[in-house]
Amino acid sequence: MRPEVQTFVADGPLPDWDADEEEIDRRVTQLEAIGRPVTAQEAASLATCFGPDDCYGVAWTLLHLIETAPGPAISIEPAPDANEWHHRLYGRAVSAAPTATATT
Known about the structure:
Blueprint: H1 3-10, H2 21-32, H3 40-46, H4 58-66, H5 84-96
């Protein structure tokens, strides 16, 4: 895993909406330092970093970064009480997956 991803993941989940501006800016800077695409392993690690809300849009940036991986970061349906961002990642992966078509 690249050092930029390790640094971001080591700092844990994104803060919530009432975090100070400096903390949010620091996390944005960390996120912007991560080159795209990410590996499947990096995506899985980054998926653990969603916080309780969208952190002023930073969670969307994280989601889009995770989606640059070669496959879905979350391939098993999350539990009903899982973080909303895990549900969103899973739902987007399922809707983007090719569907099997019957041949006659």
